[in-house]
Amino acid sequence: MKIFRLSLFNLRKNKKEAVAIIFLTFVTVFLLGTVAANIAKINTVFDDCFEAAGSVNNYVFFRDRKYREEYKEILEKDYGIEDVRKADILYSIGVTVRDKSGEKIGYNIMMITEEDDRKLESFVKENCLRDEEIATLKHPVWLPQYFEITGGYNPGDTFTLLTGGRDYPFEIAGFYETGPCNETGMGLKIVISEEDYALLSSIYEEDVMLGYNADQPLPQEEYIAKCEKRSSENVSNSIWIFDQADLKLQETVFLDMFMYISGSLSIITLVACVFLIRHKIKNDIEDQMQQIGVLEAIGYRSKEISMSYIFEYVITGGTGAILGAVATVLFTPVMNMFIRIMMNRNVHGTVNMIPVIVVAIIQVVVITVFALLRARMVKKYPPVVAFRKGIRTHHFGKNFLPLKSMKGNINLRLAMKTNFRNTAQNIGTGVCIVVASVAMLFSAYTMVFFKDGYDGLIALTGMEISDDSITLLDGIDAYRFSEELSGLPEVKKTLVTYNFCFMAVKGSKYSGTAQVYDDFNETTNIPVYKGRYPVHDNEIMISLVRSTVEGYDVGDNIIIEGNGTQKSYVITGIVSGMSNSRMNLYFTMEGYQRVSPMTRPNVVQIYLNDGVDQNDFEKKLASLYGAPVSDMEEGNIEGSSLEERIRAQADIAVAKLIARYGVTDVDYAIKIGDQMITGRSGSLMIKDISSTKDLAKSQMGGIGNATFGFNIMALIFIAVVVAVILGIIAGSNVRRQRKDLGVMKSMGYSSKDLMTQIALQILPTTVISVAIAAVLSVFVQKAFWFYLFGVAIPLDIPVMIVTCISMVIFCYVVTYFAASRVKKISVTELMTE
Amino acid sequence: MDQILKTEKLCKSFSNGGVQQHVIKNLDLEIMEGDFTVIMGASGSGKSTLLYALSGMDKPSMGKIFFGNKEIEDLTNDQLAVFRRGNCGFVFQSVYLLENQTVLDNVLTGALIVQKNSPELVAKAQDLLTKVGIGKDMWNKYPNQLSGGEAQRVGIVRAVINDPKILFADEPTGQLNSSAGKDVLDIMTEIHKNGQSIVMVTHDLKTALRGTRILFLRDGNIVGEYRMAPYGTDDMKERRSGLQRFLDEMGW
């Protein structure tokens, strides 16, 4: 009990340090507890949503009208899967939607009827209009929760699809809970009426989604091979197989990133906390040496005296841990909201207390153990030694930097002398600064990378992101069209490529999306991580993730399968990219045609000059090359004269033939009275216009901004922790050295001189630690981005230099001001001591 | 002799548990250049408090202090520190050498805040140390390797290295044995002979004998003053008895 009172006395004496340790333990438990409690919740939320929505857990998606009934039979007969459901879906990549503020944004959209959706899930309605209100809607649409949570739409709002500058407005009946298709990567599934579906099926491609429940994922390669064998058709380019686990991984990756960063920050605070406790116990023991001697002299055992220090930290650490645990619980609604926003899904439930309690206990145990180890040093001081302030023998230490050979500032020299004597403290401080600096550098790299929101993420996609992407009608020469477009004053450059398609890789369970260009040197967003661009038809580049996961390297051969054939390619380069499941394949035009000889490039990507309005440009395209047939089919007749109206009507009819029946050439002649109006389909060239940039914005904008914001918070947090650490170190150094500081004051050293000395004392440690951190940060950065996203963020040397310099200056300034308690030291106090 | 330090109505009070304790009360004092002033008085009479106030280590509660023509009582702490550099030297009862610095570095630490490093400065420090009996073999020793007397001699060298206008000493022999104390006093006497003004607080008669002017402090004010010839220039017996008489009159 007496020892306990001694601990309380010490606590009262050093309130600021006690508060700092409580703060650090609080933060550690709060962060680690939040991570521990919510990592599990993230998993649960996703699975709960699947369950609540009644969604099946396995999906096979057939695109490009490649579905055959035999494929369903294979699932049922060969794999024994019962109850395979088939749903028709209209799917389009990069559908432009006008958001609530009127701005255009691109989404991958799946359109389905309620009847078909109920085949795959229970169609659980959430926030919606009343039934009688819904009944009055002309074009009702049910949106997945993404549009409610991130899009900010409300029931009754208008949801507008745009194609080629034309609006297709729907009225939002409400929102529904869905398992898959509630994220922008794969696409957002919207439920529309039978009538609208029939109408839009002439615009968008109709695909098939098979869904079923199974415990095991489908063996993709084997299934595709069976399908191709049965139909003698190439399927691998047009099939997409995924299950609940795949989707969960995709949806939770960014949340996991935030959790990992939070966890890392908590480790920083834990390391800082442990170091501070060790530092403070050592200083306290040295400071209270004579009191220790007195206590020992009157019969206290060193063990009991050690316990007084340990109790002190059990009290502070325990208080911090309890506060941290309570804060974690109180923070639950905020975390629920954060997870809801990040996942666009309903989040229910309270915090799981078990991991929080475990974290709090671990924290207290760690503190106690380290305090115990440090407090044992009391043993080294029997009473007589303690009376002599720990001096056992005379000091024969080396005199570092003797003043007689001094050049320059006396404050600097004295600071360096003190620094060289405090090796143990330097190591401890150094470890804290290294850890904090690594985190700060990581946050700074990431923050700067994402400073423009989604631009940072776009740079990581490893694919071309053009302003407009024009899909041409069959038979249109993409090169000729591209050449014509290049001549327009608004156009900066054009690239010819293929529409999105999958390619199978022999021996791999991961198919890849083909990125095909004539000359990769013309591309702007496909940086080579290693090697070089492919030039010849037998050359290819692969993604960094495929290289790592499957062990391919530059110079290796890789076999690509397609159209019943296999072709070998030499890998010339590796590209860092996180798009398309991080498994892109990069072909030259000739190289791609080796494995897909019947296809011709059908997409022209357009990069506009700065300041060109995209909408105006699309209208200009329509006037030059005819509106996209996807728009014309809707029957938008414009024109003032009879002939113009007839031509417009004729064009619509031709567009329908082209879009629905694969007709390539149409000539027409219409006689009205004596007048003959003739025309041909050659005037129609564009199948569809989409904006990859808008699509990227919708997919990545939120994450980019969130990452930027999160890293700003992380930077502030680290700065606070570093300030607390240095504040305590400086404060406790002032207390420990107060006699010397007082003597120096009597000699005429001002408080500013002494504060400068104390700040300069940690400068060498700071500089060395920050330099070490700079090197480590390169590896941490590389490892983090690769293992989480499969990409390599380029090393930003200027950011590194600026951050390192800022860190050193920050540490100096914080220590300088933290040392201001030196002002309170008076020489008088020394004399009356 | 010129006046070097002067106080007007100097007051110093402390607050203890809300109770004001007036330690120095309206004290007027002049210190003349070249004097060896000794302040004596009973415990609690305010000797040390007066010394701190005079030397600019502590601020008075009221009144004025003129150091030469400069009024110092309104200076900030940092301004006082800068003021002390060139004007004041200190010798403490507990010596207070910087424990982690060698003997020579202790002296130079005091010097280098005022002067630029130069071979002459180092030579001066070494010369002074040699004069007080701290030989070359001890210059690189640390304070805990020195005896109390040796440490105090180093303290004196550190105090005078900048040629201060006044050397303040607070019971400089208080923690020394008689032999070491005598050595220290001999050094201070020698310094005084060379023209150094000294203000010293003591309650020891032997120590006070070294002074030329004795001030007796009681209840925060100077109640008596006694003048003596410089030490060693008069009869020692008479000097002692004269001072003893003065102190007896003061009720010491």
What structural class do helix, strand and pairing data of chain A support?
Answer: alpha+beta
By oligomeric state, this entry counts as: heterodimer
**Overall average pLDDT of chain A:** 83
Widest sheet: strand ordering of chain A? 2-3-9-5-7-6
Cα-atom Rg of chain A, whole angstroms?
A: 34 Å
Total number of helices of chain A:
29
Low-confidence stretches of chain A: 633-637
Number of helices of chain B: 8
Polypeptide structure, described:
The complex is a heterodimer of chains A (833) and B (252). By secondary structure, chain A is α+β, with helices and mostly antiparallel strands. Chain A has 5 domains: 1-58 and 247-392, no CATH class; 59-246, no CATH class; 412-462 and 696-833, no CATH class; 499-598, Barwin-like endoglucanases (Beta Barrel), CATH 2.40.40; 627-684, no CATH class. Chain A contains 29 helices and 24 strands. In chain A, the strands form 4 sheets. A 6-stranded mixed beta barrel of chain A has the order 2-3-9-5-7-6, surrounded by 4 helices. Chain B has one domain (3-249): P-loop containing nucleotide triphosphate hydrolases (Rossmann fold, 3-Layer(aba) Sandwich). Helix content of chain B is 35%, strand content 27%. Chain B contains 8 helices and 10 strands. In chain B, the strands form 2 sheets. Chain B has a 6-stranded mixed sheet, with helices on both faces. The mean pLDDT of chain B is 90. The interface between A and B is large, with 39 and 41 residues.
What order do the helices and strands come in, and which of them pair?
The complex is a heterodimer of chains A (833) and B (252).
Chain A: H1 2-13, H2 15-53, E1 58-62, H3 69-78, E2 85-98, E3 104-113, H4 114-120, E4 124-128, H5 131-135, E5 140-144, H6 145-149, E6 158-163, E7 166-177, E8 182-183, E9 187-192, H7 194-200, E10 205-212, H8 220-231, E11 239-243, H9 244-287, H10 289-297, H11 302-330, H12 332-343, H13 353-375, H14 383-387, H15 410-421, H16 423-449, H17 454-459, E12 468-472, H18 478-486, E13 491-497, E14 502-505, E15 512-517, E16 528-531, E17 539-543, H19 544-550, E18 557-562, E19 565-575, E20 585-588, H20 589-595, E21 603-608, H21 614-625, H22 629-632, H23 642-661, E22 667-672, E23 675-680, E24 686-690, H24 692-736, H25 738-747, H26 751-761, H27 763-789, H28 797-818, H29 827-831
Parallel strand pairs in A: 3-9, 5-7, 15-20, 17-19
Antiparallel strand pairs in A: 1-10, 1-11, 2-3, 2-6, 2-10, 4-7, 5-9, 6-7, 8-9, 12-21, 12-24, 13-21, 14-15, 14-18, 16-19, 17-20, 18-19, 22-23
Chain B: E1 3-16, E2 19-32, E3 36-41, H1 47-54, E4 62-67, E5 70-71, H2 77-87, E6 88-91, H3 103-112, H4 119-131, H5 148-160, E7 166-170, H6 178-193, E8 197-201, H7 205-208, E9 213-218, E10 221-227, H8 236-249
Helix pairs in contact in B: 3-4, 3-5, 5-6
